Amino acid sequence: MNTSSTSEASEAYIALGANLGDREATLIEAITRLDAHPAIKVLRCSNLYETDPVGYLDQPCFVNMALALQTTLDPESLLSVMLDIENGLGRERIIRYGPRTVDLDLLWACGKELHTPILTLPHPRMMERAFVLIPLADIVPKEEPSGLYERIQGALHVIDGKEGVRFWKTCTWHSESALSEN
Ligand SMILES: Nc1ncnc2c1ncn2[C@@H]1O[C@H](COP(=O)(O)OP(=O)(O)OP(=O)(O)O)[C@@H](O)[C@H]1O
Ligand SMILES: Nc1nc2c(c(=O)[nH]1)N=C(CO)CN2
């Protein structure tokens, strides 16, 4: 696969979800694979939340979380890495909004707006979804320069507890590169 790197590293936020198989193990493996990519560093992980399904209701509860990444990849190349990881972890697309071993959505890349055949940024449905916003709020600092913090707070105020999102666990993932530095 061709991935293009820009010379400057920038921050991106992604959402993860899983509702088939060992949900926690699959999410941890997805984080490990992202961090193992030479152009991606996982900076922060949210807590894990158990969430009631939204959109297609006849399916198991999800575990959802969010990550802050630093990357030198452009957004389309980052998405391509994410899709490869989803496929490698057994993701199948059968029912729209249906059950999945893992889902990785690119939410936000420094406030960039993009509309290409394969990528829309910011993610078009992120501000309607408590299962995205509540984990994301764990890891976006108040001083995030492109205004993401304020957007999340405003959107959460509108959603106001309409979805079932329950704290489940803290994230146990630690970067292997950080461990080997110590
Ligand atoms: N910001 C984005 N993040 C992830 N995928 C995106 C984004 N914008 C467009 N896409 C496209 O959406 C396609 C379908 O994604 P996917 O099957 O994961 O959708 P979904 O998770 O079922 O629904 P949703 O997009 O509402 O979360 C991807 O192959 C990708 O090309
Ligand atoms: N609770 C929850 N519901 C969903 C989720 C998800 O990750 N969590 N993903 C969907 C498709 O993107 C559709 N519905």
Superfamily at the CATH H level? 7,8-Dihydro-6-hydroxymethylpterin-pyrophosphokinase HPPK
What share of residues are in beta strands?
25-35%
List ligands, each type once.
Answer: adenosine-5'-triphosphate, 2-amino-6-hydroxymethyl-7,8-dihydro-3H-pteridin-4-one
The domain tally reads 1
Q: How many β-strands, per DSSP?
A: 8
Coarse structural class: alpha+beta
In DSSP terms (H or I, runs of 4 or more residues), the helix count works out at 5
User: Which CATH C-level class is it?
Assistant: Alpha Beta
Low-pLDDT segments, ≥5 res: none
Question: What letter string, H or E per element, gives the SSE order?
Answer: EHEEEHEEEHHEH
- Average of pLDDT: 92
CATH fold-level topology: Alpha-Beta Plaits
Shape: globular
CATH architectural arrangement: 2-Layer Sandwich
Q: Describe the biggest sheet? A: 6 strands, antiparallel
Q: Alpha-carbon distance between the termini?
A: 33 Å
Helix content: 25-40%
What is the gyration radius calculated from CA atoms?
16 Å
What does this structure look like?
This protein is of the alpha+beta class and 182 residues long. It has a single domain (5-171), classed as 7,8-Dihydro-6-hydroxymethylpterin-pyrophosphokinase HPPK (Alpha-Beta Plaits), CATH 3.30.70. The chain has helices spanning 23-36, 75-88, 130-139, 148-159, 176-181, and strands at 5-18, 40-45, 48-51, 62-73, 103-108, 114-115, 120-121, 165-169. The strands form two sheets. Strands 1, 2, 3, 4, 5 and 8 form a six-stranded antiparallel sheet that branches. Helix 3 packs antiparallel against helix 4 (148-159). The protein is globular. The model has no long low-confidence stretch (mean pLDDT 92). It binds adenosine-5'-triphosphate (ATP) and 2-amino-6-hydroxymethyl-7,8-dihydro-3H-pteridin-4-one. 2-amino-6-hydroxymethyl-7,8-dihydro-3H-pteridin-4-one (PH2) binds at residues 17, 51-55, 62, 64, 97, 103, 131. Residues 96-107 form the 7,8-dihydro-6-hydroxymethylpterin-pyrophosphokinase domain. It comes from Paenibacillus puldeungensis. This is 2-amino-4-hydroxy-6-hydroxymethyldihydropteridine diphosphokinase. Pfam families: HPPK. Its EC number is 2.7.6.3.
